[in-house]
Design goal:
By secondary structure, the protein is α/β, with parallel strands linked by helices. It folds into three domains: 102 residues, Urease, subunit C, domain 1; 117 residues, Diaminopimelate Epimerase, Chain A, domain 1, CATH 3.10.310; 348 residues, Metal-dependent hydrolases (TIM Barrel). The protein is 30% helix and 22% strand. It is built from 19 helices and 25 strands. α8 packs across α9, α12 packs across α13 and α17 packs antiparallel against α18. The chain is globular, with a radius of gyration of 25 Å. The structure holds zinc ion. Zinc ion binds next to loops.
């Protein structure tokens, strides 16, 4: 153990005798352990008998609160792991009886042990370690300071890339290239917004794109212009493709470094599995290298794109609309080659609309103060046919849909596919579901569609009251991120984070879903508190429901004997502590497939 060894004890490779009477007694003094070793003579006898048993467990966690998510046995004291699987669950005495001479026994000292967290929507490999991240800025001065400090620490002559900005950081909610020019004028700068739907560039980069006041908007996006008609440097949704040609390709080593670095961060936050809501040939090579080097630390399922753009063509994968048989053959091959449980394929990701902040999420009624109702990216008929094609082929379709109209279109497409193909059990998914029509929520259960939501989205940050709630208006905002209503409608709700857009720490996600407050505790009582859910529900959405959403409920997601030993130990019992304190809980240990991937 490194620092923090008073949290729980662990002995490795020692026989029971020396554990009881040898160096462990000293260790116990030193690190202030709970009375794990105050065994009764009876239990000692049991343990000695078990030492002879074959095969003994590799790891045994005792004396804790083991929250299994298994309805057959929801809470036990202890759990034993053998190889990559859970050997047994039960009382501490029963599990100690499964220990042998080489067993690692971990005393939980009453702490909470839960199934490993699954993030059902994120985006590996994530940002380059050479990209600047401005998420933490609360205003344009702070944003400029972050940029200035980063540029100073990372001098160069090429393009500075980065991301994480939001409308609320800029005066009047209006981003403009002049704020970037003030920091960096002689090198191009290209910054993604936090949601990944909008790009802001400085004047140098704008000049490189060749876009001027005379350039027309593309049909699926917007070149934002100032009051004089000049481009501000903001490119919304489809207009981003006007910037892509000037952005240099990320190098393979850069992507690999990002993947490894961020995977370490994820396991430190307790993640043992994740649904990647994207994929590219570059990502694929990165993952293959990590697999070959034995460095994949969490279970990853990848979603290939419903249709591909220029990035994929560069790697000789010609995906296009309409989907060709070659495209399908390739996706089938990926699905067969990677069936899991470590790396898995079989999902298809598409976008129905954009975001509320950019007013590109497709709504039935206009955004407040405008005539705009957002931009659906598909003609409904074309969407239906494309979804039906993948449905017929046995793929699970994931459709990004945020506005009420976009969500309706996604559900319509799933209903159409099931009816046309006569299929069931595809577990298609709607991603985000931020502002649904409440009358659409029962359709999730009826159609067997997964509600893939992001817990942290209900955290009311500064942008919520600047660029999110005002364009929706109070009626629609009152049921934005309606986690409670989704649960009440009987849907399977799988929580994710949409990292690298947002923090992927599930503890923070649980805090958000339970309080609907910022980490600082505002607004008091929570943002539309009627949509708060319980810790139990939030935990289920981050564990069991995520496994179901990946078709993995028979092999993981609950702490059930025979399932994969994916689990997490927390410093505090989030199930009983005051909700406002949940973020104080830390991940002490993460285990995936019986191997410890993180230890505080
Ligand atoms: Zn996403």
């Amino acid at each position: 153990m490194k620092k923090g060894t008073d949290l729980f004890s662990r002995e490795k490779g020692t026989d029971l005798f020396s554990r009881v009477f040898g160096d462990f007694a000293q260790k116990r003094e030193k690190i202030n352990l709970s009375p794990f070793l105050n065994l009764s003579p009876f239990l000692l006898l049991l343990a000695f008998q078990a030492a002879a048993a074959d095969p003994a467990a590799d790891t045994v966690f005792v004396n804790g609160k083991v929250w299994t998510e298994d309805e057959a046995r929801p809470q036990v004291q202890a759990i034993a792991v053998l190889g990559e699987k859970i050997l047994a669950v039960g009382t501490s005495a029963e599990m100690r009886a499964l220990a042998g001479p080489r067993t690692t026994v971990i005393d939980l000292n009453g702490r909470l042990l839960i199934p490993g967290f699954q993030d059902s929507h994120l985006h590996f490999p994530g940002p380059s370690v050479n990209d600047v991240q401005v998420d933490d800025a609360r205003n344009v001065e702070e944003l400029q300071k972050i940029l200035r400090d980063f540029v100073k620490a990372h001098p160069g002559d090429g393009m500075q890339q980065g991301g994480g900005w939001t409308y609320g950081q800029f005066p009047g909610g209006k981003p403009h290239r002049k704020y970037l020019d003030a920091v960096l004028a002689d090198r191009p700068m290209v910054l993604d917004d936090r949601d990944g739907h909008v790009i802001l560039v400085n004047s140098k980069a704008l000049a490189m794109t060749g876009v001027t006041r005379d350039t027309p908007d593309p049909g699926d996006g917007r070149i934002v212009r100032d009051e004089h008609g000049e481009p501000t440097g903001e490119f919304d949704d489809g207009a981003k493709s006007l910037v892509y040609p000037i952005v240099p390709d990320a190098s393979f080593d850069d992507r690999y470094e990002a993947f490894i670095t961020h995977m370490d961060e994820a396991v430190a936050d307790g993640l043992t599995s994740a649904q990647n809501a994207s994929w590219s040939p570059m990502t694929h090579r990165v993952v293959l290298r990590a697999l070959a080097e034995g460095r994949v630390k969490l279970r990853l399922r990848f979603a290939t794109p419903i249709e591909a753009g220029v990035d994929y063509a560069a790697d000789k994968i010609h995906l296009s609309r309409p989907i060709t048989s070659a495209d399908l053959a390739y996706y089938r091959e990926l699905r067969e080659t990677f069936p899991g449980p470590l790396v898995k394929f079989g999902a298809i990701k598409g976008y129905v609309d954009g975001t509320v902040d950019a007013k590109t999420a497709a709504m039935f009624e206009p955004y407040v103060g405008t005539k705009e109702t957002g931009i659906p990216f598909w003609d409904p008929k074309e969407l239906n046919e494309t979804v039906a094609l993948y449905d017929r082929e046995g793929f699970q379709v994931m459709l990004h849909a945020i506005g009420d109209k976009g969500i309706s279109m996604a559900l319509d497409a799933y209903a159409y596919a099931a009816k046309t193909n006569g299929t069931t059990g595809r577990r298609h998914r709607v991603e985000h579901i931020e502002v649904p029509r409440l009358s659409d929520l029962p359709r999730f259960k009826e159609l067997g569609v997964i509600a893939s939501t992001q817990a942290i989205f209900c955290e009311p940050g500064p942008t919520t009251f600047v660029s999110y709630e005002p364009p929706l208006g109070p009626q629609r905002a009152s049921h934005a991120m309606p986690f409670k209503a989704i649960d009440d409608a009987g849907a399977v709700q799988a929580f994710g984070s949409d990292w690298s857009v947002f923090d992927f720490a599930p503890i923070r996600g649980i805090y958000d879903a339970v309080t609907r407050m910022t980490p600082e505790g505002t607004p008091k009582g929570g943002w539309y508190p009627q949509q708060r859910i319980s810790v139990e529900a939030a935990l289920r959405h981050f564990t069991r429901d995520g496994a179901y959403a990946s078709f993995d409920e028979n092999i993981r997601g609950t702490l059930t004997p025979g399932k994969l030993a994916d689990l997490v130990v927390l410093s505090d019992d989030i199930l009983t502590m005051p909700p406002q304190d949940i973020m104080k809980a830390r991940v002490l240990l993460t285990m995936m497939g019986g191997k410890i991937t993180y230890e505080e």
